[in-house]
Every structure is written in structure tokens, then in C-alpha cells.
Amino acid sequence: MGILKIKLLSGELTVRKQLKRDLDRAALVRLEEAARTEDDFLIVTKNWDRLDANRERKERYHEQSVSDDMFDWDIFDIFHLVNEATDKQKTVFFSRVILNWPPQKAAQFHEMTDRNVRGLVSKMVNEIRLGLFEALKRRLEDKVPMSLRQQAYLAICLAKEKIKDCKNAATEIKHIDNDDS
């Protein structure tokens, strides 16, 4: 009974938090529409800056890190995958990953937003991981020996691929059911 009560309370808290966020946003929009003086606009700007700072903090917290899982591979594979990226991706990736610059510094240097830097690096890391996955699938098909880490990485990727295929199949079934109705 206690666990059920806690689950209900946590769900209730989540709903309350969402309602509070919605009310705060609506209040900010009303404040923005009612602003007439410079001081009013400064208050609105301060509130939007606070919301942006919170969003950026959350993005940094959930930022996809470049783990060492991909650096256990043949250097040629990684070199080939990096060379397939655009020049913009390569320069941002270099400053962010190799020089270990924070997204804000890389963004300032490349004259873009830190959100854009995180997006480019995340996209490139995902492309590298996908390329490594494809290379490992070929090794598996060709029966080329792999290290334990490579086997573990391949197993994780294959499991994720099956989950994605199941989700895609479920979506297709829903579309077919909707068409039949």
C-alpha cells in the first residue's frame, strides 16, 4: 500500500510541476504583452534569460558524452568515419572533443550557439557509433575475431536495433489499423 501511495504522490507531483510551469509561462507571456516601459522589458528579459539558462543547464546535464567505447577500435575505422563528416562538424568536433573545450567556448570560437555545438557533436558521435556498429556487423558476418569490448558493443547495438525495429513495426501496424477503420 505504501509503494502505491508513493507512486501516486510522485505522479501527482509531476502533474503539479507541469501545471506550475504552464502557469509561469502564461504569466510571462501576459507580462511580455503588457510591458510598456524599459523596466518592464528588463523584467521580461530577465525572466526569459533565467528560463534559457535553466534549459541550457538541463541540456548540459543530459549532454551526450564521448565515451571511451569507440576508442577501442581500429584507428583506420575511426579516421574513415571522421573524414565522412562535414568540415564544420570536424572543426567543432575537434575543439569540443580533442581540445576538450566546453560547449560555450567552442560556440564562441566558431560563432554559433552552444546548443548548435552540442547538436553537431552529438550528431557526429552518433554517426561514428553507427559506422562502428556497421563495421562490427561486417566483421561478425565475415567471422573476423573481435575483442570482448567489441563483442559487448555489438550486442548492445543489436539489441537496440531490435527494439527500434519492434517500435517501427508497431507504428506500421497502427497505421494499417487506422487505414482499415
Structure description:
With 181 residues, the protein is an all-alpha fold. The protein has seven helices and no strands. The chain has two domains: 60 residues; 113 residues, no CATH class. The longest helix has 33 residues.
What key phrases describe this protein's structure?
181 residues; mainly alpha
* Global morphology: elongated
Beta-strand segment tally: 0
Total helical segments:
7
The proportion of residues in beta strands is under 5%
Helix-and-strand structural type: mainly alpha
Question: Termini separation (Å)?
Answer: 41 Å
The percent of residues in helical segments reads over 70%
Largest sheet: number of strands, sense, barrel closure = none
Unreliably modeled segments: 1-7, 65-69
* Count of the domains: 2
Give, in order, the helices and strands. HHHHHHH
| Multimer state | single chain
Averaged pLDDT, please? 77
The Cα radius of gyration reads 23 Å
How are the SSEs placed, and which strands pair?
Layout: H1 2-34, H2 38-61, H3 75-83, H4 87-98, H5 103-110, H6 114-141, H7 148-180
Helix pairs in contact: 1-2, 3-6, 4-6, 5-6
